[in-house]
Design brief:
The protein contains 13 helices and 16 strands. The protein is an alpha/beta fold. It has 2 domains: about 130 residues, Aspartate Aminotransferase, domain 1, CATH 3.90.1150; about 240 residues, Aspartate Aminotransferase, domain 2, CATH 3.40.640.10.
Length: about 400
């Protein structure tokens, strides 16, 4: 977005402060983990108490087992779970496991996923082109890319390569091309095709897990994945990830099976303590009703302010996630996301930053509301947006 990024020195609740002493209403939330807001007292207390007993042991701890049991209870379809140190590691491990379980090599993906940094070409179906230096041609050759929400191309991919596809990995609600929700029937079609062709369906819920609903996108949309990857919220602001799924798949992981996965700091007790403290609080009855209502209130107010000043703008939310789009309607595909006016977003971003509101510094990222955001915060944000839209 240009300009000099603020360097953040502290956060509390819905706000952050930079090194120059300026405060901002924060809608980035460390890119999603801080569903309770910054420096939640219970999370900080859990971290301090655990750190006093030691930072890492390289051996089992009770907290790991408690986290695993909680995840298997809250997330549909998690018979067994393995803790890792990040959402990235979780998705990479899940892909290795899917290949090891199926004996197949191809991965079908939508958007950017970890080591599979490839992008689609212009054809109806393509094996992809490198989207990052350092990605070997052999990896690219095993990666299929189809557009998110496009069932026609999805059918074509399975029609041609179905017998060699190990898994489909998808963000059930896309969050890395701005917020794009699944069209009716899209996730169900994914489930149907994977079952028919013997491929695994992997839900990348690193972003959506405990953000769109207590049980994640599986619970929200009623579609069951074979494997689920988690991160962000389950660490409460510290580095934790996890992947899990059906017992017969997870039992392929060493030492029970031949698929090796390990990490020295996996299940780090201090990080797990932060995650557990967060997960315990979000189970409070009505938590997600309140979070969703606050996020919708923000989006409704922004839409109203834009209309007032004749600005082509729309916003949309799911749970505590929201998207800002400089186009008339929320997009449902990557192509529609690319139609958004990036220059207008850049001017809006800086206008809001000047008025003390910190949105994600990209036209293609999702925003996040936390339980610490109040109606007063939302009202202040909408008032700032009214002035910003007037300036636009």
């Amino acid at each position: 977005m240009g300009g000099t990024p603020p360097f953040i020195v502290r956060g509390a609740g819905s706000r952050i402060w930079d090194a120059d002493g300026r405060g901002y209403l924060d809608y980035v939330g460390s890119w999603g983990p801080l569903v309770l807001g910054h420096a939640d007292p219970d999370v900080i207390a859990a971290v301090r108490e655990t750190a006093d007993r030691g930072l890492s042991f390289g051996a089992p701890t009770e907290l790991e087992a408690e986290m695993a049991e909680l995840l298997t209870r809250l997330v549909p379809g998690l018979d067994l779970v393995r803790l890792v140190s990040s959402g990235t590691e979780a998705t990479m491990s899940a892909l290795r496991l899917a290949r090891g379980f199926t004996g197949r090599t191809r991965i079908l993906k939508f958007g950017h996923v970890d080591s599979l940094l490839v992008k689609a070409g212009s054809g109806a179906l393509t094996l992809g082109l490198p989207d990052s230096a350092g990605v070997p041609p052999e990896t690219i050759a095993q990666t299929l890319v189809t557009p998110y929400n496009d069932t026609e191309r999805l059918d074509a991919a399975f029609g041609e390569f179905g017998s060699s596809i190990a898994c489909v990995i998808v963000e059930p609600v896309a969050g890395n091309m701005n917020l794009v929700t699944p069209r009716a029937g899209f996730l169900g079609r994914l489930r149907e095709l994977c079952t028919r062709h013997g491929a695994l369906l992997v839900f990348d819920e690193v972003m959506t897990g405990f953000r769109v609903a207590l049980g994640g996108a599986q619970a929200l949309y009623g579609v069951r994945a074979d494997l689920v990857t988690l991160g962000k919220v389950i660490g409460g602001g510290m580095p934790v990830g996890a992947f899990g799924g059906r017992r017969e798949i997870m039992e392929k992981i060493a030492p029970l099976g031949p698929v090796y996965q390990a990490g020295t700091l996996s299940g780090n007790p201090v990080a797990v303590a932060a995650g557990l403290a967060t997960l315990k609080k979000i189970q409070k009855p009505g938590f997600y009703d309140s979070l969703g209502a606050m996020t919708r209130s923000l989006c409704d107010g922004l839409n109203s302010a834009a209309r007032k000043h004749g600005v082509r703008f729309s916003s949309h939310s799911v749970g505590g996630m929201f998207g800002l789009y400089f186009r008339a309607e929320p997009p449902s595909s990557y192509a529609q996301v690319m139609e958004c006016d990036k220059e207008a977003f850049g001017r809006f971003f800086h206008a809001m930053l000047e008025r003390g509101v910190y949105f994600a510094p990209s036209a293609y990222e999702t925003g996040f509301v936390s339980a610490a955001h109040s109606q007063a915060d939302v009202a202040a944000t909408i008032a700032a947006a009214d002035a910003a839209f007037r300036a636009l």
